[in-house]
Amino acid sequence: MGPRSPRAMPNRTENTARSLRLVCLSDTHGLHRQLTVPNGDILIHAGDLTLFDPTLSSSLPMLKDVNDLLGDLPHRHKIVIAGLTTCKCPR
Question: How far is residue 6's CA from residue 57's CA, in Å, rounded to a whole number?
Answer without folding.
Answer: 50
